[in-house]
Amino acid sequence: MTKIVWNRKVLGRLLSKLAIPEDKSGCWLWEGSVYSNGYGKFSIGNKIVYPHRVVYTIFIGEIPDRKLVCHSCDNRLCCNPTHLWAGTHEDNMLDMVKKNRAWYISLYREDNYNSKLTERDIPKIRRMLACSYSQRNIGKVFGVSKTTIGYIKQGKTWKQPKRFPRRD
């Protein structure tokens, strides 16, 4: 990762591009240039960096090796240091899943518009599998293919919810 070196001039430029609410409890929104991925961009010398990483470095400290600066508020433009935390990519993904922001979770759940199964069907299907019903017959009962039942059996779809450790 790029080490962020800053001074008063950099701090002044950075703060001039932030909309900081009076009460300081809300998001400090980046009003400068933005990457196509929705994160802000800020130049220090000849380097372009994410402004939330600069804010983290200034207000909290150095970013540990192999860590990202994550947003507890889930707002990519936020630079409020009280909303920022250092974590691994895995930590960030677990946080996203815990908050039901993972787009891919809906691919295999009933909120997917293509889904023919519901959450209530899955325990029934698992009981039938445990009683040695064929995947083909189970599929006929629920109006899905034997492959769909096989994916449930293998844990590829409709996985049991994973329990995530608390992050305080």
Biggest sheet: strands, sense, closure? Answer: 2 strands, antiparallel
Determine Rg (CA atoms, Å): 23 Å
Number of helices: 6
CATH architectural label of the largest domain: Alpha-Beta Complex
Strand order of the largest sheet: 1-2
User: Helix proportion of residues, in percent?
Assistant: 25-40%
Arithmetic mean pLDDT: 86
User: Can you tell me the overall shape?
Assistant: elongated
Total beta strands: 6
Structural class: alpha+beta
Write down the secondary-structure element order: HEEEEHEEHHHH
N/C terminus separation: 26 Å
| Overall CATH class of the largest domain | Alpha Beta
Strand content: 5-15%
Total tally of structural domains: 2
Q: The CATH topology of the largest domain is what?
A: Homing Intron 3 (I-Ppo) Encoded Endonuclease, Chain A
Low-confidence residue ranges: none
Give the gist of this structure.
The chain has 168 residues and is α+β, with helices and mostly antiparallel strands.
Topology:
Elements: H1 8-16, E1 18-19, E2 29-30, E3 42-44, E4 47-49, H2 51-59, E5 68-71, E6 84-87, H3 89-98, H4 121-130, H5 135-142, H6 146-154
Antiparallel strand pairs: 1-2, 3-4, 5-6
Helix pairs in contact: 5-6
Report on the structure:
- This protein is an alpha+beta fold.
- It has 2 domains: 8-98, Alpha-Beta Complex (Homing Intron 3 (I-Ppo) Encoded Endonuclease, Chain A), CATH 3.90.75; 106-154, no CATH class.
- It is built from 6 helices and 6 strands, in the order αββββαββαααα.
- It has helices at residues 8-16, 51-59, 89-98, 121-130, 135-142, 146-154; strands spanning 18-19, 29-30, 42-44, 47-49, 68-71, 84-87.
- The protein is elongated.
- The mean pLDDT is 86.
